[in-house]
Write a structure and sequence with these properties.
7-stranded mixed beta sheet, 4-stranded mixed beta sheet, about 15% strand, globular
Length: about 475
């Protein structure tokens, strides 16, 4: 693109647009690193308006699992456009949604029998929270609270934020939210240093206020037991991100934690919501993260990878037990009064049908297993670096936590923006990744090659060597 035309578009962006999770003062004033304008994409690569290619190392925010411009998904959407692109789902139905419901129920845990459609991860969680809340009303029990984990992230709508435990994202909105109980996050790397609760993000300043001496010794799951034991009759549901608290820096739970969490919910008669928006559809090496520990939740929330990054779509899957509680006479008003204009959009459902077909027919999970092993090998060599405190991997998802002092785990001063700087410099090597504070995040698509994985890790090492 002509430089003058590009400058025009950049100025218009800075003048008109408010970007998500972005400090706009930095965005507006950051002239040396002008915004990257994406023009097209193919496979694992994004291309800017000047024709430069970049490895999409975060799957375009964790959604593009099968690569850009996938011909089978493209064709499915094109074919659906010739029929109908949208109709309301209130009182009507259509074939793509019906077909998708059957495909989903065939691969989800067998206790899940009903599919409720919405349009993004936050709303999938909102649906589960409201269903659980209303369910207990029908059971004549006043259960108005929820249990979540510190460092949890379940979306940005008010209900999802109410069960969110990431202070950086959620603390400013506390007065707007319903109250929830929060148990300790299973943040094992930091647990080995500390006895007090860990703030997020951990900074050089608040690092000084914590006693980094003794690990939690299982306190994380003990707190879940204590809270459920004391307040179970007040709790409508417990919610968890199975295996990986992704948005808090890829905090991977220890083996057995998820199954124990589920057992405690069952023991105390509390409904279990598993938020698989980040982990679903093969990212952990299995179709769903709950399969690793044979967990059968009352709700599973899905989005992101469900359409391969093509269109917004979300699903809340639940049991017949929950569904049947809402059945009744019209005048009883037991209806679940919740919906969206674009619920079960036919184009999105067509894309999702194609994604599930590809995942099953192309033996994608076997290919993902190879990617996971290649990634493990590359990360093992990187883990000894003096500037890396901890590397956390869950399938194709990785968090690389950068620290000032490897021995003590002391983080850099947040004013230095070390994570953001590394991501910016790596971009010059043709790689796009993202940071969560000073944790570098990888979220790899299922078509990435061994060479491309190696290129990403080598680029990170080069920048760490230059710190």
């Amino acid at each position: 693109m002509d430089n003058r035309l590009k400058e025009k578009y950049i100025k218009l962006d800075k003048k008109n647009i408010w970007h998500p999770f972005t400090q706009m003062a930095d965005w507006i004033n950051d002239d040396p690193n002008k915004p990257l304008i994406i023009d097209k994409a193919k496979g694992v690569y994004l291309y800017d308006v000047d024709g430069r290619q970049y490895i999409d190392g975060i799957s375009s925010l964790w959604v593009n699992i099968l690569g850009h411009k996938n011909s089978l998904i493209d064709n499915a959407i094109r074919e659906q456009i010739t029929k109908v692109s949208h109709s309301t789902f209130l009182g009507l139905t259509h074939l793509p949604a019906i077909e998708l419901s059957e495909k989903l129920l065939n691969i989800l845990p067998k206790n899940l029998n009903k599919i409720f459609y919405s349009d993004n991860g936050s709303t999938a969680v909102e649906v589960a929270l409201k269903m659980a809340y209303q369910y207990w009303q029908f059971k004549k029990e006043k259960r108005t609270m929820f249990l979540s984990l510190k460092n949890a992230y379940h979306g940005d709508t008010i209900g999802a934020v109410s069960v969110g435990g990431t202070e950086l994202f959620h603390s400013r909105f506390r007065s707007l939210l319903f109250k929830s109980y929060f148990a300790m996050s299973p943040y094992c790397y930091r647990c080995k240093f500390r006895t007090k609760s860990i703030p997020f993000p951990l900074t050089a300043k608040n690092f000084k206020n914590h006693n980094f001496q003794v690990g939690c010794k299982g306190e994380c799951i003990k707190q879940v037991d204590e809270i459920l034991g004391k307040y179970s009759k007040k709790i409508a549901a417990s919610i968890i991100e199975p295996l990986n608290q992704a948005a808090s820096g890829m905090i991977v739970t220890p083996k057995g934690y998820l199954s124990e969490y589920a057992k405690l919910c069952k023991k105390y008669g509390v409904l279990l919501i598993c938020d698989e928006v980040a982990t679903g559809f093969g990212r952990t090496g299995k179709m769903f993260a709950v399969e690793h520990e044979n967990v059968h939740p009352d709700f599973i929330c899905l989005s992101k990878g469900i359409t391969g990054g093509y269109l917004p779509l979300a699903v809340t899957a639940t049991t017949n037990k929950i569904y049947n509680a809402f059945l009744g006479k019209y005048e009883e008003f037991k209806t679940f009064f919740h919906g969206h204009s674009y619920t079960a959009n036919p184009l999105a459902c067509a894309a999702a049908n194609a994604v599930i077909d590809i995942l099953k027919e192309d033996n994608i999970l076997q290919k993902v297993d190879i990617i996971i092993k290649n990634l493990e090998t590359e990360l093992k060599e990187l883990s000894s670096h003096i500037k890396i405190g901890n590397i956390r991997q869950c399938g194709v998802m990785v968090g690389i936590e950068i620290v000032e002092d490897k021995k003590t785990g002391k983080p850099y001063d947040c004013k230095l923006k070390m994570g953001a700087k590394i991501c910016s410099r790596i971009r010059k090597q043709g790689i796009i990744i993202r940071n969560l504070g000073d944790t570098l995040v990888l979220f790899l698509p299922f078509i990435i090659t061994k060479y491309e994985i190696s290129k990403i890790i080598k680029a990170i090492k080069i920048e760490l060597d230059n710190l």
